[in-house]
Give the backbone structure.
Amino acid sequence: MSYNPAVLRLPVITQQRTLGTGSHSLQVSALGFGVMGMSYNRGPHPDRKAMIALLRQAAEHGVTLFDTAQVYGPLVNEALAGEALYPYRNKVSVTTKFGHCIVDGKYLAGKLDSRPGTIRRTAEESLQRLRVEAIDLFYQHRLDPDVPIEDVAGAVKDLIQQGKVKGFGLCEVGAEAIRRAHAEQPVTAVQSEYHLMWREPEADVFPALEELGIGFVPYSPLNRGFLGGAINEYTRFDSGNDNRSILPRFTPQAIRANLALVEVLNEFGRTRGATSAQVALAWLMGQKPWMVPIPGTTKLAHLEENLRAADLTLTPEELRELDSAVARIRIVGDRYPAALQRQISR
């Protein structure tokens, strides 16, 4: 499958944002792209050629931040991103992650490994799959309780000095871990789930990021597609490759209750010519100038929808109006089951 940008007339993102500060900053498009769902945790794998074409469409239309990870697949998502974005390797930034335990190409569920030797080996392997000379931003995917964060930061610092990595990132960590890591090696960005249904990072993470000059990359900005409005209580998720099947927030009962929030977004967007997904993304981009959401998709129509969200700017009054309406809704269901939540550092 091939697409002609001149025929599609997709919008082009021109707004730029900066993650991090000084020599450790990374300038990217105001909206990024999460590659994960093209091969991991989102149901049956789409056609590989179609996904390569879609990623290239995103790059052609101004997206310069693409996010993947070693564990997605595992390994195959990095390879997909590497092949798709190779023609744009000097124009886009590809970020990836380390820290999960992968042996002989298989993910050992629940096991973490951020030992410096493993970090170095993972970087070398990721460089090959991504087909780049340096990883633009190398995140620790989850805090490893058996390895001091200073040792992790030191290992990435060595990779930066060697020219194999450009920036250091952390995922799902609290303020204390951020400060300790940043003291050893300046952190460019922190990545965490954050959207209108999950706002916990606002409490202690955001103040630390603002103080230290660190960027923020919210993943699952549409709550795994829920805020786009296409999911209802009758939706079934492929238990073989869709983690929504085990998430408390995606039970039929929780979905039925939480659709009230989607209706708020629809009502808000109706008078502004925007979809619920576009309102949710615009709300995120209106929170902080150093925040870059990374919605993912496998569909051209949703790529266009996401790109157009960058043109929807909400005023402070509109943001307050939306916050007030959402605050009246009680969100049902935890975001993770207990075993996964224990991997989150707060």
In short: The CA atoms of residues 37 and 296 lie 7 Å apart. The chain has a mean pLDDT of 95.
